[in-house]
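hey can u check if this looks right to u? its 85 residues, i copy pasted from the old doc so theres a chance i mangled smth
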Amino acid sequence: MSTPSIAATHDITAAPHDVDLTHARWRKSSYSGGANDCVEVAELGEHAAVRDSKDIGRRPLLFSKAAMRALVSGITRGAIGEHRS
């Protein structure tokens, strides 16, 4: 089994105040319940923004598209989110 790719630290950052999120189209997972307890994702050109649906007033995290693909791929493969002995 190969080691999952980890994004460089500069690939993930808090959204700077000058990033225009006015027209961002936020999406929730279809697995999200009605309790507003999930994350939302919006595509922003070369980046993806991720925010907590319970606290949308906080600045979202920005991921490079490569870092976002690595994150989603790792979650899908089970390499992220499991504790291994």
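The first helix runs from residue 65 to 77.
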